[in-house]
Amino acid sequence: MGEILNQMLENYLVSSNVQLQKGPDSLSFTINSAEGISKTTLFNILPYMHLIFFDIHARSLPGEIAENAVYHPMQFNYCVGGRIEMLLDDNSYIYLKEKDFCISRQTSQSESYFPTKYYHGITMYFDPDFFTEANSNVDNLFNLNLSQLSEIYFEKKDTYIAEASSEMGKILERLWQFYETPSPFHMKLCVLELLHLLLDAGNVVKEKTLTFYTSVQVEIAKKAEQILTADLKQHIPMKQIAQQFGVSETSLKNYFRGVYGKNVSDYLRDLRMSMAEKLLTETTLSISEIASQIGYTKQGKFAEVFRQQFQMNPLEYRRTKKIQKL
């Protein structure tokens, strides 16, 4: 498993605009891009167990390499906020949203993909056999037989997804707090408490009913998103895009919702409002010019939608931002 993490390190280092920070028990990678700043922090919790915090404001990050596809350490993933795409070794795709967790030994991909350009999450890599052998004292003291995880969670498929219970959520919330203020001791306690909870068969939460998407379906959704967002002035009918890809309009909308977690109309509205917010803050364009740039022919309609999103009209928002800068 160390080889995979070493390769992740190499992948990050060859990326542009990478800042590397080393701590006594951690490595942090900060990547600056046009989309924003993304930070990945890796901690060595125990031998053969690594904890990774993701603070992502981008569409993708380097991940594992193809040569590592034959080796699948067990992963625990938890989505604190945003959305993450997971490619399984059978070439199907699944997605985690806020408060979802996933236990898997199927994931292996060349990059991590975040459909909404935002993700806060926690990943734990470990190998149950190597972990037990290297940490026999921990295993004996806390009665953590990690090999039982396979029996509990992989009865039907080697990936298990559910919404975190209230108890699990509280543990993971505490763990996330150590992203900014690391405490190796308390992080170990949280991890041990989490593992204890996962191994308690009586507390296993019900698995979610999931839709698995093929690579073709995911590619169609992503191409559609590119077409729809290339020029926000344009309003391209989904029927037209569906015909271009040879699928039904309903199927295309389902693929899109599966990948991005929102209906097309909601996704585009949120994107337009985000762009409007940026233009109001960073430019001197008039309200009518901003409305036109993001696809609203009527300034009044733009102001109405903006007010619903930000609880103030565009001009008030601009003035508020100017005052905050003084």
Feature tags:
326 residues, alpha+beta, Jelly Rolls, 3 domains, ten-stranded antiparallel β-sheet, two-stranded antiparallel ribbon, 13 helices, globular, transcription, DNA-binding
Task: Summarize the structure in words.
The protein is of the alpha+beta class. The chain folds into 3 domains: 202 residues, Jelly Rolls (Sandwich), CATH 2.60.120.10; 48 residues; 56 residues, Homeodomain-like (Arc Repressor Mutant, subunit A, Orthogonal Bundle). Helices cover 44% and strands 24% of the residues. It has 13 helices and 12 strands. The strands form 2 sheets. Strands 1, 2, 3, 4, 6, 7, 8, 10, 11 and 12 form a 10-stranded antiparallel sheet that branches. A two-stranded antiparallel sheet has the order 5-9. Helix 7 crosses helix 9 and helix 8 crosses helix 9. The protein starts with a helix and ends with a helix. About 2% of the residues have low confidence. InterPro entries: Homeodomain-like_sf, HTH_AraC, HTH_AraC-typ_CS, PchR_regulatory_protein, Tscrpt_reg_AraC-type_HTH.
Structure in a nutshell:
With 326 residues, this protein is α+β, with helices and mostly antiparallel strands. The chain has helices at residues 2-14, 128-134, 136-142, 148-153, 166-177, 184-198, 215-229, 238-245, 249-260, 264-282, 287-293, 299-310, 314-325, and strands spanning 18-22, 26-33, 36-46, 49-56, 60-62, 74-87, 92-97, 100-104, 111-113, 119-126, 159-163, 213-214.
